[in-house]
Amino acid sequence: MNWQKKKEFLKGQLEMLAFFREQTTRERHLENLIDKNIEMIKKCSYFMERNAESLEKLQHSIETVVGEIEEL
Fold it and tell me: Distance of CA 17 to CAs 1, 5, 30, 44, 69, Å?
């Protein structure tokens, strides 16, 4: 293999390594974004459950008050 072919080969290898490095960095960023989204979904789910419980308690209180008013 002459010097020019070696140079072209090595240049191609470096370009490929740079491409894979960029891909790895992008994948890492996407994985971090996905992890953050999963955590946010967990938090939203928790607060939605808490709100549902509060709404159920409020509904029960309203039904109790309405029942008491109807008895009057």
Answer: 22, 18, 20, 40, 77
- Distances in Å between the Cα of 3 and the Cα atoms of 6, 8, 11, 40 are 5, 9, 12, 55
50-to-2, 38, 41, 47, 57 alpha-carbon distances in Å: 72, 19, 14, 5, 11
Q: Which amino acid is at 46?
A: Y
* Interatomic CA distance for residues 30 and 27, integer angstroms: 5
* Average pLDDT of span 36-50: 96
What is this structure's pTM?
0.60
C-alpha pair distances (Å), 9 with each of 13, 14, 20, 64? 6, 9, 17, 82
